[in-house]
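Section 5: illustrative case.
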């Protein structure tokens, strides 16, 4: 699905481009939402502007998961891993993923870090410079924002790249491959934050004007609140 083979690039770009695996975390039970968040319909009122939607024109019903899959398409995105757990069969049937793109986390109850760890293990035979980690309940991001984060990482492949909105850190986050082992051994109760804290000097914050990086749509009330404040929604990069 994410194959850049055959695309010729100038030598200087080949040296800069990173090989990034996109990891979408969608293993949770979605108990508060009442149905799999990955398969919730993406809010039409917050969809991309017409100039940005060419890649999604053929998608009949855009879900949280499908939207994230589309906006993370990028020349540097060499692999995709969607991590499912509690609703693995529903997601498998609906998302139409290649076999290697779906990772089933049998220990999803242990928390989000266990899903990231499952994705990293699945990449053992795939050379990557880093992983772009997208929680499925933070879907309100654009392709332009993803490109900005990836381009920043391409110039700083040893950095943790984190978007910020008005001073608040958000998602998605890019972790360099050099930190995979630390992510695999991080304490479940703290999660990937433990690695971020341990490498505070290695964090690159990217200020953005997309509020979606900090919006967590993990319960029905959050969706209602989103609809009620459409006029103040900020998604300009």
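Designed sequence:
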């Amino acid at each position: 699905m994410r194959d850049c083979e055959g695309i010729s690039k100038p030598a200087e770009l080949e040296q800069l481009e990173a090989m990034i695996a996109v990891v979408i975390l969608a293993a949770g039970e979605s108990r508060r939402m009442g149905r799999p968040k990955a398969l919730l319909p993406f809010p039409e009122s917050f969809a991309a502007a017409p100039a940005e939607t060419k890649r999604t024109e053929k998608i009949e019903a855009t879900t949280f998961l499908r939207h994230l899959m589309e906006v993370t398409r990028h020349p540097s995105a060499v692999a995709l891993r969607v991590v499912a757990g509690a609703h693995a069969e529903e997601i498998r049937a609906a998302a139409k993923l290649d076999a290697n793109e779906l990772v089933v986390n049998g220990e999803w109850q242990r928390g989000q870090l266990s899903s990231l760890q499952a994705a990293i293990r699945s990449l053992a035979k795939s050379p990557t410079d880093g992983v772009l980690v997208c929680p499925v309940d933070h879907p309100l991001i654009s392709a332009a924002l993803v490109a900005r984060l990836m381009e920043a990482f391409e110039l700083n492949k040893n950095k943790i790249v984190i978007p910020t909105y008005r001073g608040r850190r958000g998602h998605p986050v890019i972790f360099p491959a050099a930190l995979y082992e630390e992510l695999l051994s991080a304490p479940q109760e703290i999660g990937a934050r433990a690695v971020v804290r341990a490498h505070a000097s290695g964090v690159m914050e990217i200020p953005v004007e997309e509020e979606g990086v900090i919006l967590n749509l993990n319960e029905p009330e959050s969706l209602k609140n989103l609809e009620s404040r459409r006029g103040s929604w900020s998604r300009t990069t």
